[in-house]
Amino acid sequence: MNRREQLQYLNQFLLAEMPQFQEQADAVPDDNISQRRLLRSLMNVRPLWPLSPDFLNIQDALLSAEALEKGIVDADRLPPVSSDSRLAIWQGDITRLRTDAIVDADNSALLGCFVPCHGCIDNAIHTFSGVQLRSACAELMRQQGHEEQTGSAKITPAYNLPCKYVLHTVGPIIRGRVTKKDKDLLAACYRSCLNLAEQNGVRSIAFCCISTGEFHFPNREAAEIAVETVQKYRKESGSQIKVIFNVFKEIDYNIYRELLAADRTSEKRVRNV
User: Fold this and answer.
1) Residue 272 pLDDT
2) In this structure, how many other beta carbons lie within 10 angstroms of the beta carbon of residue 137?
3) Are 125 and 102 in contact (CB under 8 A)?
4) What distance in Å separates the CA atoms of residue 85 and residue 43, rounded to the nearest whole number?
5) What is the pLDDT of residue 262?
6) Domain residues of the chain, as ranges?
7) Partner residues linked to 91 by β-bridges
């Protein structure tokens, strides 16, 4: 089955489940890029229904091929910052990283972003992992019996991502001034992820910039908390886990490079590779 046939099958399957979107889908151009965007939208809005083995097989084949086309970045080959051999900065798409675990900044429902093609990291991770990720998160929430608390963490398989696991954490939402409680909760996100990673044998973990996007935590304060918490955790626990601070925006890249006294020459070699 070629790419066009994969997209056609997957979109038709989802539209059969959600016929209320058929009229909008009919207006989408027939080229592969537009049809792929339609597929992402339908995957984003799909409720928690049973998963068809045939659908999953074709979805997985598509996502695996796309991962190779985007280019997989091996976290073990990222050069460390000059100040610490177990820390690295990488600017780019976190869904390209081959590492033991990546961190997803979730909302308290832990079910991913339902807004079609939204630009948040939660949407990207669920999109390129596949629809299985939402089901896995839903099962964790069913077992727990309540929404996820801010500062805690959960772990799931990564499915079609190059990494092994996705760690899900809920950061604080900033409304107005940043409080001590907000800072403590953000630090708790990093500690919870590191603790859970160690419990599951994770040797390398990539953190996104938790709470700095839709949750409005100031970039510099968030980065300072991230770096301080990771360094304190490793010092107190003796952990040898490799930590990658994954950034997307230029402002975050510059802040982390400054905080970690990163070697500019070394960093330039790994930005968006």
Assistant:
1) 55
2) 23
3) yes
4) 39
5) 56
6) 3-68, 73-268
7) 247
Comparing CA positions, the residue from 75, 128, 22 lying closest to residue 242 is 75
For the chain, the three-class secondary structure string (H helix, E strand, C coil) is: CCHHHHHHHHHHHHHHHCHHHHHHHHCCCCCHHHHHHHHHHHHHHCCCCCCCHHHHHHHHHHHHHHHHHHCCEEHHHCCCECCECCEEEEECCHHHEECCEEEEEECCCCCCCCCCCCCCHHHHHHHHHCCHHHHHHHHHHHHHCCCCCCCCEEEEECCCCCCCEEEEEECCCCCCCCCHHHHHHHHHHHHHHHHHHHHCCCCEEEECCCCCCCCCCCHHHHHHHHHHHHHHHHHHHCCCCEEEEEECCHHHHHHHHHHCCCCHHHHHCCCCC
Characterize the bridge pairing of strands 242-247 and 101-106: unpaired
Alpha-carbon torsion, ordered 219, 223, 224, 230, to 10 deg = 160
Distance (Å, rounded) from C-alpha 190 to C-alpha 151?
8
| CB under 8 A, 24+ apart: contacts of 35-42 | 35/4, 35/7, 35/8, 35/11, 36/7, 37/117, 38/11, 39/7, 39/10, 39/11, 39/14, 40/116, 40/117, 40/127, 41/116, 41/117, 42/11, 42/14, 42/15, 42/18
Q: Was domain 73-268 assigned CATH 3.40.220.10? A: yes
Give residue for tokens 């229904």: 49
User: Which residues of the chain are under the pLDDT cut of 50?
Assistant: 263-269
